[in-house]
Write the structure tokens for this entry.
Amino acid sequence: MSYLNSWLTRPVRLGIMIILIMSFFVIAPLIILYTAGYRYDFSKQKIEQTGVLSIDAKPRDVTVYLNGVHIKKTMPIRLPNRAPGTYTLLMKKNGYQNWTKDVTIKSQKTTYIKKITLFKSSLPILIQKFPNKDIINAIVSPDGTYVLMTHAQQQIFSVTLLDTRTNTKTTIERENSTKPPRVSWSPSGDIAIIETTNATGDHVILIHANTPNNTIPYNYDAGQLKPAFEWTQDNTLPHLYVQIGKTIHELYESTDTVVATIPKNIPWYVDPDNVVWTTSNDGQTVFRLNDHTDVITPSLSDGESITNIISINKQRAILRTQNHTLVVHMNIPPKQQTTQTLNTQNEIHNTTSGEWETWSGLELWSLYSNGGIALLNRTNQHIRDVLPLDMYGVLLLVQNHALVAFNPGYYVTHILFNNGTIQSAGVDMKQRIIIFWGSIGNQEGLYQLTY
């Protein structure tokens, strides 16, 4: 059969059929591979399986962009079949600071971005003025709920407890002394001590901040109290060990128990099992006080000795010398011990993670319970203090003129405040409030910053 004046001749029709058949055998596998999660990477010139990006953040109604493309989903978000590579993730919401990071999606793997809470864009609110300039110290409790303020009028020192929730004040102590009282908060509870000295001797006052009128005094002979104490790391029963003369006392509620006698004023530490550790006379080794066993022999720089025992468990010891923090990996006998030396001078026990954070003016490290260490941050601004900001490991870096949030899991930094002078701070994680003592402009006082 022939078609008059038609271009669909038999050869043409045969060619179209061949093209369609070939196209089917080419396109069909590509469609199958695509639906199975395979993509061609032109930069690598090869076919790779896709990965998955999983995102979970608060508030739930944040707007999410991936490489500038709006993801029209609500939290938690799961994005399957994403070609391997690096993407720019941006999360934003009115009234909050943007959260952005380059994330890498790998073939046949799920990349998780989780446990993220965006920070509010807010300004500090003055909650307590210091108009008379007689406050020489204001120590905020770790949870930001209370502040112990030291007032000085000539040689009369008084300590006042401020409840930041109710703005009520209670006078705790008033002494005629040649030096200001020493105040310390327990890192794991609203309990504090005040150390004072007057003509009759040395005094320790133990304060339960929720019942401030029921303070517990401990009085000792003049010159007996030494500036050496240790708060326990027990979050449920925070109490205190104090060195008085040659004895170590455990102070808890109304009890005063002698737990050890040391030969002289040398560094000591009471571990969670109530084992007392101390150093040799030359400060070169650490051992159990009762039987001198389990000797820890750190590698020390010339002229250095151990000045403080920070923490000891079965895997590592954290020690301080005049200029360094030492992490000794312990695997008794001593020949198997190794020492890592850090140029840091400050430590804090992170009660949310169980880790120790140590820092110098410009570097921040994390010390893990298994003996591992990690450099978390380097900054060009002096770090005064480090505090936990949430239960997921985000930290507050208290600097001289700024409050900086740092997420070590994602290496993301947010400046929460940077326009004043900051002396001390505390964090109420439940309410997401920072309380700090400082100055903004010419106004000195206590400020509240919602984050």
Observations:
- The longest strand covers residues 168-176.
- The chain is about 5% helix and 50% strand.
